Amino acid sequence: MENKVLTSKLLCYHCGETCQEENLQIEDKYFCCLGCKTVYEILNENDLCGYYDIDNNPGISLNNNVSNDKYAYLDNEKINHQLSDFIGDHQQIITLYIPAIHCSSCIWLLENLYRLKKGINQSRVQFSKKQLTLQFDPSIISLRNVVETLVSVGYDPQITLDTRKKEKSKKEGTSLYLKIGVAGFCFGNIMFLSFPEYFGFDGIDVVLKQFFSYISLLLSLPIVFYAASDYFKSAFKGFNQRYVNIDVPIVLGIVTLFLRSAYEILMHSGNGYLDSLAGLLFFLLIGKWFQSKTYQGLSFDRDYNSYFPLAIHRIIDNKLETVPINEIEIGNEIVVKNNELIPSDAILLSDTAFIDYSFVTGESQPIQKFKGDYIYAGGKQKGNRISLKVEKTVSQSYLTQLWNNDAFQKNEESSDTFVNSISKYFTLIILLIAITSAITWFFVDPSKMINAFTAVLIVACPCALALSTPFTMGNALRVFGRLGLYLKNAFVIERMSKINHIVFDKTGTITYNDQSQINYEGQELTIEDKQAIASLTAQSSHPLSIIINTFLNEKNTLNVMDYVEILGAGIEGVIGKHNYKIGSESYVLSKSNKNESVKETRVYISKDGQEKGCFLIRNKYRDRISEVIRKLYPFKDLSVLSGDNDTEKERLTQLFFNEAELKFNQLPENKLNYISELQQHNKNVMMLGDGLNDAGALKQSNVGIVVAENVNNFTPASDGIMDAKLFNQLPELLSFSSSAKHIVYASFILSFVYNFVGLYFAVTGNLTPVFAAILMPLSSISVVLFTTFAVNYKAKRVFSNTN
Amino acid sequence: MLIIVALILISVSVALIFLGAFFWAVKSGQYDDTYSPSVRMLFDDKKKKTIKDEDKNTTKDES
């Protein structure tokens, strides 16, 4: 709870990160940055320090300061209305998605927001969805103020219009719960009423027996017409598409069970198999629920709307106004500030701009643009605000056009699963057996013909078969989730097991996103020089300054005089008696020999006008990448697609043992086309990417996985999100997915054995209700147990030697 | 024997009440989030005595 001293390093009281500077201190508490200290002050002032009592160092590190009108667009009435769930005169309700929610302290603080700001009445956290529902009084506090309060304590909401479309999946989830409830209720009661028969009580009154049967029949109605409705729909859909899926034999079984039981009961000739029917559906629905585990906090379906700002500043009649993004028209003049995204293709009106396209191309360094240049959407401006003239509307822009590609229209879940491919034959064989036995009985003993025919359909109802996939895949999904690979649904695992070609994106996927490799070339730097450079770079928040500063790891508290920072060029200052300049070649050396062969990012240093040397900054590959490649290349084809130029070609060739196809200067649609070309050659492609530039490729590929340093960050639409730490285990993940497939095969065999035993009794006309009521649950439960144990055992085996 | 009939009817209707309660619980969203309520119930009452006047807080927020 108190700040711990770990090997003389101080941990921030707020967020638990190591403190770099030692002067940020309140009483005995240390802080890593001004942001954390401010949050502590706010909380302290409002007696909200209970925040720190629940979890250790719960805070969120606040390193990037936001311009103070970032949320100005929330004042716009239209946007305000679109985002809110309800707006009244004195009450407004809004639900915000806050990715930073991660612990109990978060819940505590966010639900005590009313103590922080007057006007906030109530706030409720939905932890699994990372959502906060806020109720506040708009006449006292504006939405913008509320959001800024959240930001001030480190909980930045992610506001996109996209978050408004989540209602559908929720409804599906609750209807499954209700169906399980109904099935469980009817199952229990029918079984209860069947007890006398199980134990063979003979002394029971006939009237009472019939009464029991009638109640059972009544109870089975909601099962057939409500709980089983999804299976009817799915089987019918399959028929319409001339496709026999696994639900067809299930529906066949359900209908036969129900009709035969109803006939027996109404004709007083027996008690039917209603208990088996109810049990069957109950187990099937449980399997469905088990398989439908989803990671609600993560989103797998984002499109460009989620990346783009909601609003943009527009200049009309020399007045700056904020308008929703879809209202900007061609010819409008828009203003983009530091770190804001350019939402549509436009022509630069300002003199110069530095556009960071890392979002789109993966290229990490900003590109300088000049007045009149055409600027594509998706870039971020670094530095002063710029104005632009809009050339295309948002949806027609270069970047967003990617989403008009066919890959994004394609049907979501293909029914091409293994279980569906065998169900065709399964159904056919079952029908054949049923008809043959009926014909045989017709000649032997016609009174047993119907009995045997229906008994075959009943006992062959592939309950265990239908359960084996959901439980195997559901278990595997949980194993992956524990490790840090969050898949969209269980079908992905089956597709993963068929992968034979893996395509990597370069930047951010096989390289670190947040680490660079840095070298120094030139004259030897003395200690004083190093300290001077460190002190100078400590003044600037430019990413390159930070990289150099951490690289030097020197005392950086020297006094800097006459500090000047020129955005996109460099910094200079006087330290001691010397003038230091750090920055681009043209800035530091006052010459710009536009050297096209310059491949890496270089930062030049000069002391009193004399060139000292330069830092070379390159991407750093993940530590164990070559080990991963060595394990993969004998079994899978590999490719690397990079948005960058071919600087790294040699290193990559070496790294991939000359086994991979390398492609450079790939635009987003090149990547997409490359993958669809592979697929035309019958490859099952897995794409690993990270940014918006990979969005098309991720969507087109059979399995698209996003590699993210922080899984709660914004990621493009994909089949799964993988924690970057897990990258080293990629070969194991793939081999585990094929193990899962083998486990499904094995459990198929197990359930076939049960089917054969049942069929023997059915064909011979000896299937009693009690026997059916035992055989069905027995087969289902043993399949469930088998898959659960097998998956977890396999997971232990596969992943034990990597940890 | 009539008593058994009556008992069965009673037991089924009691079970129906519980089924209704389950429906209500699902529909009112109690299954939407199963984590935060478990934490929330431990928070209450703890620091209520320290609530001060909230007016003075309005000055310090944007930083």
What would you note in describing this structure?
- The complex is a heterodimer of chains A (803) and B (63).
- Chain A has 803 residues and is an alpha+beta fold.
- Chain A has 5 domains: 5-54, no CATH class; 72-165, Alpha-Beta Plaits (2-Layer Sandwich), CATH 3.30.70; 169-294 and 418-472 and 739-800, no CATH class; 484-512 and 622-735, HAD superfamily/HAD-like (Rossmann fold), CATH 3.40.50; 515-620, Calcium-transporting ATPase, cytoplasmic domain N (3-Layer(aba) Sandwich), CATH 3.40.1110.
- Chain A contains 25 helices and 30 strands.
- Chain A has a 7-stranded mixed beta sheet, with helices on both faces. In chain A, strands 10-9-11-17-12-15 form a 6-stranded antiparallel beta sheet, with no helix packed on it. In chain A, strands 20-25-24-23-22-21 form a 6-stranded antiparallel beta sheet.
- Residues 1-8 of chain A have low confidence and may be disordered.
- By secondary structure, chain B is mostly helical.
- Chain B has helices at 2-27, 36-40.
- The chains are: A alpha+beta (803), B mainly alpha (63).
Count of domains of chain A: 5
Low-confidence stretches of chain A: 1-8
Number of strands of chain B: 0
Distance between the termini of chain A: 29 Å
Assess the beta-strand content of chain A as a share of residues. Answer: 15-25%
Unreliable residue stretches of chain B: 46-63
Output mean pLDDT of chain A.
Answer: 80
Structural class of chain A: alpha+beta
Shape of chain B: elongated
The main β sheet of chain B shows up as:
none
Helical content of chain B stands at 40-55%
